[in-house]
Specification:
Layout (H helix, E strand, L loop, with lengths): L2 H11 L9 E11 L5 E2 L6 E13 L2 E2 L2 E15 L2 E12 L4 E13 L2 E14 L7 E10 L5 E10 L2
């Protein structure tokens, strides 16, 4: 069930950016999900809920010239056969120690319990230090890598006060 992985990443997308006014941004997050433990609802086969967590490494993201380093995504996923929906948060840590958090939501497609593709939207919810008061939103799309990680392409825009 790679649904969790997909949504975990989604949170990572929330951290793309670089500059002070409204700025377009994009980058990639390579996320390694923890193995999920779905709990069956019991109404229909394949209907389950799971809590997902993934650790991500960022490339190509910076806010106000500060590069992002890593992030953690946590999500609540509803799985219905080979489809899933997810809501979660991604907290990214930057080279200066400051953090941003974004809320994400999205969908995923799986085959034989493995993540095939997924995407969604994200919105910044908070920032610390230099990023306090950050605003912004964007989109993300993910695809699996052969090593079991997921690569997420993240695009969006942000502004700082």
């Amino acid at each position: 069930m790679w649904v969790k992985t997909v949504f975990v990443f989604l949170g990572a997308a929330v951290f793309a950016a670089s500059a002070v006014a409204q700025n377009n941004s994009s980058g990639t997050a390579q996320c390694k999900p923890d193995p999920p433990a779905p709990v069956e609802v019991g109404d229909k086969p394949g209907h389950a809920f799971a809590i997902g967590k993934a650790n991500c490494a960022w490339s190509g993201f910076a806010i106000a010239g500060v590069p992002s380093k890593e992030g953690v995504s946590v999500s609540l996923d509803e799985i219905r056969g080979d489809k899933a929906t997810s809501n979660g948060y991604h907290t990214a840590t930057y080279a200066n120690g400051d953090k941003t958090t974004a809320h994400f939501q999205g969908t995923a497609t799986m085959k034989d319990g493995k993540f095939v593709s997924g995407g969604g939207t994200w919105t910044y919810t908070s920032g610390t230090g230099k990023f306090k008061g950050i605003k912004g939103k964007g989109t993300f799309n993910g695809a699996p890598n052969a090593d079991g990680t997921v690569a997420y392409k993240v695009e969006g825009a942000y502004s700082l006060p």
